């Protein structure tokens, strides 16, 4: 059936779902601007038409991670000997529970397994940090010596440092990713490693250095979240995206 030149076609078109927020895919914005698009949604095969059917939970998770990391890092830099217990609500709610919810929502999105794993893991980390600040737990921790608590905290931070570096390695192997995210995971791992050293040695300088690297990680997480928010409005800010999908095609695919 022929349609007039200015009459929109009413037949249905096949849809495809975009990948994870921590990844990216190529497409068009709602402003009909060609760019590399990040986030979720269903995209028709009609040129210059994008239909976003749901929000992107990963962006909110990144924002929660960035905020609580920034707050704790400021304490490590400026007040290394002061207790950060005032941050308990933010650690449990915005940094912990919110990240876990956002991560679990990503498990229901095709291609969102990596995002879901990262956000849920660090959400559990910050929720645990917040629980340790609850005053009623001081009676439990009071049963152990300061030296023993330092060693336990050092092992804990070392394990999470290795986890962050593990996520960074996986991110480097993604077919579609960004250098901003890789850098953020690197600085997160470095922050936790420095906190591990500070726990074992008691050197305040290591704790202050961890605060500096933590601030860098928070800024990078905010940058990635900002890029993913603006992309739906057709605004693109650099995040160092790459796409190796074409390089990994089999010879049979190339022949076809």
Verbal overview:
It is a multi-pass membrane protein. It comes from Umbelopsis vinacea. It holds the Pfam family Gpr1_Fun34_YaaH. This is GPR1/FUN34/yaaH family-domain-containing protein. The chain crosses the membrane at residues 59-80, 86-107, 154-172, 179-200. The chain is mainly alpha-helical. The chain has a domain at 59-226. It is 57% helix and 9% strand. The chain contains 8 helices and 7 strands. The protein has helices at residues 57-78, 88-106, 113-131, 138-141, 146-172, 179-201, 204-231, 251-255, and strands spanning 15-17, 25-28, 34-37, 42-44, 50-51, 176-178, 241-243. Strands 1-4-5 form a 3-stranded antiparallel beta sheet, with no helix packed on it. The longest helix has 28 residues, at 204-231. The model is unreliable at 1-53 (pLDDT under 50).
Helical amount among residues, as a percent range? 55-70%
**Average pLDDT over all residues:** 78
Q: Spatial order of the strands in the main sheet? A: 1-4-5
Strand content: 5-15%
What form results from the Cα inertia axes? Answer: globular
User: What is the overall number of helices?
Assistant: 8
**Regions with pLDDT < 50 over 5+ consecutive residues?**
1-53
Strand pairing plus helix content: what structural class?
mainly alpha
The H-and-E topology, N to C, reads as EEEEEHHHHHEHHEH
CA-CA gap between termini = 31 Å
Oligomer: single chain
Rg over CA atoms, rounded to whole Å, is 22 Å
Tally the beta strands. 7
Largest sheet, in brief, is:
3 strands, antiparallel
Transmembrane segments: 59-80, 86-107, 154-172, 179-200
Protein name: GPR1/FUN34/yaaH family-domain-containing protein
Keywords: Membrane, Transmembrane, Transmembrane helix
Main location: membrane
């Amino acid at each position: 059936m022929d349609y007039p030149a200015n009459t929109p076609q009413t037949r249905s078109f096949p849809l495809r779902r975009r990948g994870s927020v921590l990844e990216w895919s190529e497409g068009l914005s709602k402003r009909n601007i060609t760019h590399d698009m990040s986030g979720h949604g269903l995209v028709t095969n009609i040129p210059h038409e994008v239909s976003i059917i749901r929000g992107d939970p990963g962006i909110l998770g990144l924002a929660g991670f960035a905020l609580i990391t920034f707050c704790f890092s400021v304490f490590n830099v400026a007040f290394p000997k002061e207790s950060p217990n005032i941050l308990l609500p933010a650690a449990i709610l915005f940094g912990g529970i919110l990240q876990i919810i956002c991560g679990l929502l990503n498990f229901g999105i095709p291609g969102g397994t990596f995002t879901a794993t990262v956000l849920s893991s660090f959400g559990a980390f910050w929720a645990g940090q917040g629980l340790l600040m609850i005053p009623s737990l001081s009676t439990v921790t009071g049963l152990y010596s300061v030296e023993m608590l330092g060693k336990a905290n050092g092992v804990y931070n070392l394990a999470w440092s290795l986890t962050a570096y593990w996520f960074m390695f996986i991110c480097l192997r993604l077919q579609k990713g960004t250098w901003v995210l890789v850098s953020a995971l690197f600085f997160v791992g470095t922050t936790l490693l420095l906190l591990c050293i500070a726990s074992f040695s008691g050197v305040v300088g290591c704790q202050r250095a961890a605060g500096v690297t933590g601030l860098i990680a928070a800024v990078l997480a905010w940058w990635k979240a900002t890029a993913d928010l603006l992309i739906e409005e057709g605004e693109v800010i650099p995040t160092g995206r790459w796409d190796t999908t074409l390089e990994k095609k089999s010879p049979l695919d190339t022949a076809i």
